[in-house]
Amino acid sequence: MGDITRTIDMRADGTQAGTVFGGRFHSDGGSQFMGNSFSTNGAPIYFGSSSDHRLPASIRELPDAILSSHFTGRVDELQQIDRAFSASSSDLPARCVIHGMPGVGKTQLALQHATLASEQSKDMYTFWVSAASVEKLARDFSKLVDLCLPGRHALDQATKLTLARAWLEDPTAAKKWLLVLDNVTQETSRMILEEILPRRNSGGRLLFTTRTASIAESCTISSKSLMIALQPPGLHDAVKMLAAGARRDGEGTEDASYADLEPLVRSVGHLPLAIDQAASYLKRYGGTKELLDLYQSEDIMEVMRRHDKDS
């Protein structure tokens, strides 16, 4: 099966230009979506109800290793995401975009939501895709075929990308899915919007994270799409996060009270990533005063970069 070349004309409402004849969708490149099959150059690949029965009731593909064990707070934001997804009533996948400065906790919030959603809904397919680069985006999104369509491992990546999108858009199977696209950049946003973003199936949910508001806006389709401008957590939650992360063997940090931790939290601007790094330091070495002196004597971002290199 050869490479797929597709030209997609995007309408203002986010739908894909094309012609529908008798339930068959023709994209401009000649690929066809026909109920329970997808075909390229006349070679059908069946995947709807005829093969989905071989799948488990749910799939959970999440990077659990990066979920902070001391995640705390963000109750309002988690509720906002839940409401945005539950309130959607169109035949399009619901969308929610989280944007904010580096280190503010976008990935952790998205992962916490995805983890809770997969635990609460036993029949949901949950996927995590890194959109930090075109290479990572293509690699992770094409993996959906390996997960959901057994026996197609030998297909080339271009075919897998198109087939993964068609599987998510398939209206013949009553699938519920959540697709997280983490760390969307200017470059990857173009690929997402022009090539792989599923645009049908009301059972779908799309959760994006990105650093900039302009990219966040490009990922929404209407005023009904929720954009969350994520801010650092409040002082109380931030201190709880630091205390929980710095705890050793179920005990508190040595000679560290909440009063000792507050100056540390303030010095890093309540940023969850910096708090996580501070917790790691305190857990290993202790000494809140020494760490505070370090933060106050050097640029905080330089301290964070050096900590990452040493970890």
Task: Record keyword descriptors for this entry.
311 residues, alpha/beta, 6-stranded parallel sheet, 5-stranded antiparallel sheet
Write a brief structural summary.
This protein has helices at residues 49-52, 75-87, 106-120, 134-148, 157-169, 186-196, 213-218, 235-246, 258-267, 272-285, 288-297, 300-310; strands at residues 19-21, 24-26, 32-34, 37-40, 43-46, 59-61, 94-99, 124-130, 176-184, 204-210, 226-229.
Task: Provide structural commentary.
- This protein has 311 residues and is an alpha/beta fold.
- It has 12 helices and 11 strands.
- A hairpin with a 2-residue loop joins strand 4 (37-40) and strand 5 (43-46).
- Helix 4 (134-148) packs across helix 5 (157-169), helix 8 (235-246) crosses helix 9 (258-267) and helix 9 (258-267) runs parallel beside helix 11 (288-297).
- The protein is elongated and about 60 Å long.
- The model is unreliable at 1-53 (pLDDT under 50).
Per DSSP E runs of 2 or more residues, the count of β-strands stands at 11
Sheet/helix structural class: alpha/beta
Distance between the termini: 45 Å
Q: State the order of secondary-structure elements, H for helix, E for strand.
A: EEEEEHEHEHEHHEHEHEHHHHH
Query: Count the helices. How many?
Result: 12
Q: What order do the strands of the largest sheet run in, or round the barrel if closed?
A: 6-8-9-10-7-11
Q: Report the major sheet.
A: 6 strands, parallel
Poorly predicted sequence stretches spanning 5 or more consecutive residues: 1-53
User: Strand portion, in percent?
Assistant: 15-25%
Radius of gyration: 22 Å
